[in-house]
Amino acid sequence: MVAGEPRLRARATSIELDATADRFMRDCARRSIRLIANEPDAGDAEEYVAKMRQVVADNDLQDEGDIIFVEVTLTDPSDFETTLEVHGQVRHGTRRVLSFESSSVPNAIAALLLHIRDQTGVKPHIYFEWTEGNPIVQILRFLFFGVGEVAPVTREVLRRAEPDRKRRPHVHVG
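Predicted structure:
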């Protein structure tokens, strides 16, 4: 059981950050912890540059220096409990990335945010982008395939896991 996450038991039983991921968190905790949820596409440098520019512009952020990407690879949805093994990597020379696998992207991201908060004492911020397209199609994708808008589900998981708004990690959608 992960401390501080009593209602998040459906997916993550524990979270393990490798040495690099742990260093990323310690470095940023002195200022602010800002994470960008990224669904990797080509994985090239331009993808990260474009995503960073978009999130910085959408959210009127002043500094790109402390921003870390979070990438979750979806696994078998029948895996209801798992240990999240978070790997820190530096890609394309300067882009810090936390990557891990989970059967539920929103639950995994929420568990990571709460873990970071509990370990560092700093409430992290995570930035999402809305999926382009018809919202009805997104709802149907979620109902039939279990995929869809991650941001509102992540926020709801956090709300249920941490009822105190003052302690809840920040979720931004642009």
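Summary: The chain has five helices and seven strands.
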